[in-house]
Amino acid sequence: KSKSANLNQLVLINKKISKREELINAIEQEVSGIESQVQNMNDTIYRISSDLTALKSEYASLIYSTYRNKSAYNRLMFLFSSRSFNQAYKRLKYLRQYSEYRKEQVKNISVIQQELALKKLELEKRKSSKLSLKHTREQERNMLSEEKLEKDGKIKSLTTQEKKLLVKLRENETALNKLQVAIEALVAAEIRKANEEK
Fold it and tell me: What are phi and psi of 71, to 5 degrees?
């Protein structure tokens, strides 16, 4: 009964170890997935940063160009030097489009900066999640090691206990044989005694 109960305990420990190993494997896969996501986010951040740098450079050129021709006099001269009303209208339209384009560039820069900030924030969250998972994985590995040590200890204890019980069993069998011989000797002596009295 003792052996059966201990073996059941051993089976339960083995199940715990198996489940723990499954959990560690699942965490490994999740960490691997997050590492892939982090790499993709890094690539995206690099691409967005490059776009932002290009936009800022283009905007800087626009500002410089506008600064050179910023005076109202220059703009008026640009309009009045037209050869016809149609050309003047086209030039006025161009100046308005140029102004709108500048506003659009400012808006684009702002949008991309916000997108970049969000991606960086998301990346930090993913990195934090990855670190947390790695910490959990290490904890699970430690617990697995403890469970394996518990299993080894149990097996060692069972083996020692079984050896002691077998030694005790042999001693009991030897004692029982001696007792049997002694009883048989007593019975034989009593029979002899009874025969002699007859």
Answer: -70, 145
